[in-house]
Automatic annotation (TrEMBL):
This is Uncharacterized protein.
Length: 506
């Protein structure tokens, strides 16, 4: 009886445990232990999107020579001495494209899917008991690629011959080391595999980000030239807020440049430079934290309708520090560590605090903006009111677009459980960079240094003049009435005194 496909296959469960590719095209295995999945023992060797080979003799870089391959180097399987008194069946290295996942494993009579051949399947003649079930793909000739080694009696180490697999079809490729021998539960795998795309060692889903961060570096450079020229031209009129915006632009320039060099080095060497990655993550986290604090304090009217934050200063600082720590941990784990080593619960645990803090920022910002707008309208400060209304509209648009994109991102990830849309995955992190940069450009346009910058600053004189005008409109009429009344009384007294004097003279 033929092997029946099943949607809830054991190999599908393995793929679900490795939704994201490891962030290194050189995958090192340093004593990785096999874990039991179904009736098999498995080590996940890597998952990456790779474009097909298209040789280009014009490429100058050795890493960009147009070849796409996966190379096995010094792969060693090591078992304990106490488990070396018997020979074994094959220990497999199985390399397959995600569309061919159904070619691994099988089931008898439509029952539970198994990776290793069971006695029922062996009776049907479909496979040999104790071996990993695999068959050739109907759409991709020659795949999956399957290699195997075995242990002889008293042999503690078994070495796989070095080999290179040429990639001739674009796809998401997965590598698993598997075996079906329960007595080899403590066996480990050592060595490395090298995964290469035609343009370099960057994984396929990350390759477009190299050009993206190059473009963003130029965009920040253009924005910086505009802002710093205005800053130098009107430096005598610069507000405290404009100094903060200058800091955010500077941090953004460093962040984009560091990300570009991080991906460029990764593309050339195949190993992600940890130092540059940590600096890029830290600059980005500081930029996001400072940006949120600036927007919050401006929303409160700091420097515009109030000179200080008063008792709110400590709360604002505490919120900023908490957001920085939560974001830094999440970003370091995501970019420096291997994402595929984390379960969904671990990522959810790290992401939830950042999401909650972001929601709190949004709520506090718009509550403060409402109070500031009401205060400006009550005092009839029309110039400040106009710029605050534009600022509020820009923030509202950014929040609406963010919510819409979050919904799309959830839909994208829920419908792409096997990373089949890996070629478009780079758009998700790129969008957030573009959105934050766009909002920064709007803020720079609203608060660009100019000869009239000081009219947006808080001023005791301006407030007092406004109060005096209100006071004068209330006091002047009564003062005039009092003066007229006093003059009339004085005149009557004078007339009476003059009449008295005339009577005396008579």
């Amino acid at each position: 009886m033929p092997l029946l496909p099943d949607s809830l296959t054991a190999i599908s469960l393995l793929l679900l445990l490795s939704l994201s590719c490891i962030h290194a095209s050189v995958h090192n295995y340093a004593g990785d232990k096999f874990s039991r999945k179904g009736n098999a023992y498995v080590v996940h060797g890597g998952s990456e999107g790779i474009y097909y080979s298209h040789p280009n003799l014009n490429q100058s870089s050795a890493s960009s020579n147009g070849d796409a391959y996966i190379r096995f180097e010094k792969i060693i399987f090591r078992r304990p001495q106490e488990a070396s008194n018997f020979s074994t069946g094959l220990i497999y290295a199985i390399l397959f494209e995600v569309d061919d996942r159904e070619t691994i494993g099988g089931s008898a009579y439509g029952g539970q899917r198994a990776i290793c051949c069971t006695s029922d399947l062996a009776k049907l003649g479909a496979c040999k008991e104790g071996e990993v079930i695999h068959r050739l793909s109907a759409t991709n000739p020659g795949w999956p690629e399957v290699f195997g080694v075995s242990f002889d009696v008293n042999e503690e180490i078994s070495t796989m011959q070095p080999r290179s697999v040429q990639i001739t079809r674009t796809g998401m490729y997965n590598l698993y080391f598997m075996h079906c021998e329960p007595r080899l539960g403590d066996m480990v795998v050592e060595g490395k595999t090298i995964w290469k795309n035609p343009s370099g060692y960057l994984p396929g889903r990350m390759a477009p980000l190299l050009n993206f961060y190059g473009f963003m570096s130029l965009a920040f450079l253009v924005l910086g030239i505009f802002w710093f020229s205005q800053y130098a031209r009107y430096w005598k009129e610069v507000l405290q807020l404009q100094n903060c915006i200058t800091l955010v632009i500077t941090l953004g320039m460093f962040e984009m440049a560091l990300w570009y060099f991080d991906y460029a080095e990764f593309n050339e060497s195949g190993v992600r430079p940890t130092g540059i990655t940590i600096w890029a993550v830290t600059f980005g986290t500081v930029k996001r934290t400072v940006s949120r604090l600036i927007i919050l304090t401006v929303s409160m009217g700091y420097g515009v309708v109030r000179p200080t934050l008063g008792g709110l200063t400590s709360k604002v600082v505490m919120l900023g520090a908490t957001f920085f720590l939560a974001s830094e941990v999440l970003e370091l784990v995501e970019h420096v560590g291997a994402v595929s080593d984390l379960s969904g619960k671990a990522m959810l645990f790290l992401s939830l605090p950042v999401a909650v803090l972001d929601a709190f920022f949004v709520l506090w910002i718009f509550t403060s903006l409402s109070a500031t707008l009401n205060k400006l309208q009550a005092k009839r400060m029309m110039a400040k009111l106009d710029i605050y209304r534009k600022f509020t509209n820009a923030l509202a648009v950014a929040v609406i677009v963010s919510v819409g994109w979050i919904c799309y991102e959830l839909y994208f990830k829920s419908t792409d459980i096997y990373n089949e849309q890996w070629q478009n995955a780079w758009i998700i992190p790129a969008f957030w960079q573009v959105l934050s940069f766009s909002l920064l450009c709007v803020i720079c346009a609203l608060w660009a240094p100019s000869q009239n910058s000081m009219r947006y600053a808080y001023s005791d004189d301006g407030s007092e003049e406004f109060d005096k005008e209100d006071t004068l409109t209330l006091i002047k009429p009564s003062a005039a009435v009092v003066s007229t009344k006093d003059v009339s009384e004085l005149r009557s007294v004078q007339i009476q005194s003059e009449d008295g004097e005339e009577d005396k003279r008579e």
